[in-house]
């Protein structure tokens, strides 16, 4: 397998190097062909790096594939995207993206400001021909164990009908490439299944998708059907998508956490039964654990950028790195670009206009 290099925005998120460095070392130990560029303040990074004795080779191989790239500033989570972009020079996020632009890294992973990451990625790495704005996409678990491609998850709060069609097209290509679904079912998230329901832009997007023979559009789906497996690709604007994602994750976290609760006053028999039930439910529904799918890809860029949750712990950030590796191995931008011209309506005209 070819060698891979990923640039990590080590100063991003709520915890920065404290969780990003252990996650990076975990990824390096799991992938002998992986190298990582840690972008951040060396003085803040160094205390979290492992210390080795001369005779201790544990993790030494992983450590040798870790390189610190110095940055001088951090983009705050509450900074407006326009302000962040203007003052991005020297920031850990900007430098990590520049490493991808210079082809010193195959992908960038950041838990930082979503708006800033979106803006800087589009500025430095550029969108694919035919795509107005990239979308945050993730593959969420479904009852059929196949997974559902959902986008946009927060990159674009407002989307017109053309953007929704572009998202549907990219989502369909992704489901075909990653999930090996020959003719992915595509649906628009809406407040009802009837044709008259929803905002004008959603109905307009539906009309375009219906007329495209290369998209297997099955109509509208409501929020309560998200995890049912009724569709392979679910499309919505970033505002609705982000609220939906956070709601689902909150409910799943409550569900998974409830499996760990045990009443100390229970009888021995009740505790044994409770333990058995937890194992049974965990075995059948463990795939719903949100920690398994952290890391949303900014789909529609010419390069790979993965957005992690800002509050991610080591397990979650490791999952985001895994998403980056998967995207690199499957050459997602190249596959999207190769298929867009034949699937996206008027893509050639759009390309000429740009």
List the main descriptive attributes of the protein structure presented here.
single chain; 354 residues; alpha/beta; 11-stranded mixed beta sheet; 11 strands; 15% strand
Task: Give an overview of the whole structure.
The chain has 13 helices and eleven strands. It has helices spanning 17-30, 42-45, 60-64, 81-86, 92-101, 114-125, 161-178, 200-210, 238-258, 268-285, 314-329, 332-343, 347-353, and strands at 4-9, 34-40, 66-70, 107-110, 135-140, 148-151, 185-189, 216-221, 233-235, 296-299, 304-307. It has an eleven-stranded mixed beta sheet with strand order 3-2-1-4-11-10-5-6-9-7-8, with helices on both faces.
- Strand percent estimate: 15-25%
Number of strands: 11
Tell me the strand order in the biggest sheet. 3-2-1-4-11-10-5-6-9-7-8
Task: Tell me the helix content.
Answer: 40-55%
Gyration radius from CA atoms, angstroms? 21 Å
Mean pLDDT value: 86
Low-pLDDT runs of 5+ residues are none
Name the helix and strand elements from N-terminus to C-terminus, one letter apiece: EHEHHEHHEHEEHEHEEHHEEHHH
Taking the sheet with the most strands, its summary is: 11 strands, mixed
Terminal Cα span = 37 Å
Q: Please tally the helical runs, counting DSSP H or I stretches of 4 or more residues.
A: 13
Task: Write down the overall geometry.
Answer: globular
